[in-house]
Amino acid sequence: MSELALQAEKLDAADELAALRTRFVLDETVYLDGNSLGALPAVVPDRVADVVRRQWGELRIRSWDESGWWTAPERIGDRIAPLVGAAAGQIVVGDSTSVNVFKALVAAVRMAGEEGADRTEILVDATTFPTDGYIAESAARLTGRTLRAVTPAEVPAALSDRTAAVLLNHVDYRTGRLHDLPGLTAAIHAAGALAVWDLCHSAGALPVGLDEHGVDLAVGCTYKYLNGGPGAPAYLYVRQELQPRFDSPLPGWNSHTDPFGMSPSYTPAPGALRGRVGTPDILSMLALEAALEVWDGVSVAAVRAKSLALTDFFLRCVSAYTEPGRVESVTPGRHEERGSQVALRCADAGEVMKRLISRGVVGDFRHPDVLRFGFTPLYVGFAETERAARILGEELA
Ligand SMILES: Cc1ncc(COP(=O)(O)O)c(C=O)c1O
After folding, report:
1. Which residue, judged by its Cα, is nearest atom 5 of ligand 1?
2. What whole-number distance in Å separates Cα of residue 375 and Cα of residue 301?
3. Mind listing the pLDDT tens digit for each residue in 361-383?
4. Beta sheet of 364-366, edge-to-edge order
5. If you compute the radius of gyration of the chain from its CA atoms, what whole number of angstroms results?
6. Whole-angstrom Cα distance, residue 76 to residue 232?
7. 160 C-alpha to center of ligand 1: Å?
8. What is the pTM of this model?
9. Catalytic site residue 354?
10. Closest ligand 1 atom, residue 100 Cα
């Protein structure tokens, strides 16, 4: 056994989260794509069967009350809240991340406009996942603002008294770079603007601290590190103090203060409920609720510590097993700048990833030349991390 394989055994033996793997349905595949689609939590299939057979099949419409369907968006939001450092009552679950980016950004610009200042500009992360950029462009047109794309590092210098809102990604989806949420949020506030964060690649992988750092609005998906399943509903965080001013651009009947009053005029519900739109996607939502049970008794700090240990170990194994210069890591070496993935650049990345997948190591490829490996600390171990790096080395040779 190689030195690194021996070390992996020791690291697995000392891993306090190792037993959590049994909470998931997994096999011999080394699954390093939980930053795209999290693995299936073992409790989900029976729960979904119960929701379909009993709640829908037998209770039918009574389930809106008796099975808690109606209140699911805020109840599940409160379950996600501690994972992103938020007190209860500030998160609703529903719609896609894209739709929540739209709600959050337009609402942020409307709030900035209330101050009476001439806040004519929206800043968007130039390195963003594309959907955020497309939606920011549309939000700017709808609200009559101009949109400027800048990298997160350029944000402090780009801020001015014209800035209405800034839309940023907490972790870059391609490189795995973790941005300075506390520092950038403080800079945005110092300029009198609002901060909107996309947490897709950080929630469930590292501490976010939404309340602690005074984030105004945030969105995120639940199908990556929260393991909610394909197309699981996203969430929207609206900081408590801002909720009375949150003016949704999608004021559906589900966010009305009296939805069954069927009033022709709209009066928003108090609190985070204002982020709701239409009838919740109950089957996906209750699958997500079951999936979140894997977090019972798990601390995000322990998850973060293991995530850094896994990515450090993977990088060490890759440099031991791969010819120097064959791949270049685009993931920062410094822990403060690293999310929970390792991204390696090489010209033939697409072909290499196909071969890796055929050998049971599943990561993904991002155009044009990036191999992405996501590390979900709840179910990825050190021995399989060593195996993945060894097979990668063989395929690159
Ligand atoms: C940072 C980020 N934002 C948004 C999305 C996608 O949003 P949606 O859930 O609307 O597909 C992704 C998907 O991977 C993402 O990585």
Report:
1. 97
2. 15
3. 999 999 999 999 999 999 999 99
4. 328-329, 341-345, 370-374, 364-366
5. 22
6. 12
7. 28
8. 0.98
9. no
10. 10
Question: If you take atom 8 of ligand 1, which residue's CA is the nearest one?
Answer: 97
Distance 222 CA to ligand 1 centre (A): 10
Contact 123, 158 (CB under 8 A): yes
Output the CA 376–ligand 1 centroid distance in Å: 17
CA-based nearest residue to 176, from 312, 362, 343: 343
Distance CA 258, CA 5 (A): 61
Decide if 168 contacts 196 (C-beta within 8 A): yes
Which pLDDT belongs to residue 114? 81
Q: Whose CA is nearest to atom 6 of ligand 1?
A: 97
- 131 Cα to the center of ligand 1, angstroms: 7
Q: Which atom of ligand 1 is nearest to the CA of 231?
A: 9
138: which 2 tokens? 């549309």
Distance CA 93, CA 74 (A): 6
Active-site residue, 198 included: yes
DSSP string, 109-122: HHHHHHT-S---EE
Specify the amino acid at residue 138.
S
Kind plus residue range of the DSSP H or E element containing 164: strand 163-169
Cis peptide bond N-terminal to 73, omega within 30: no
Catalytic residue check, 260? no
First-to-last CA distance in the chain?
Answer: 20
Domains by residue range for the chain, with CATH: 3-17+298-396 (3.90.1150.10), 49-295 (3.40.640.10)
Q: Quickly tell me which residue has 């891993």 as its tokens.
A: 15
CA distance 355 to 153: 36
Structure tokens at 166: 């800034």
Q: How far is the CA of 118 from the centre of ligand 1 (A)?
A: 31
Identified catalytic residue from 180, 198, 216, 364: 198
Atom of ligand 1 nearest to the CA of 98: 10
Q: H or E stretch including 108?
A: helix 97-114
Q: Is 129 assigned a catalytic role?
A: yes
Q: Find the catalytic residue in 372, 379, 382, 390.
A: 372
Residue-wise pLDDT for 314-360, tens only, equals: 999 999 999 999 999 999 999 999 999 999 999 999 999 999 999 99
Both tokens of 347, joined, read 């010209």
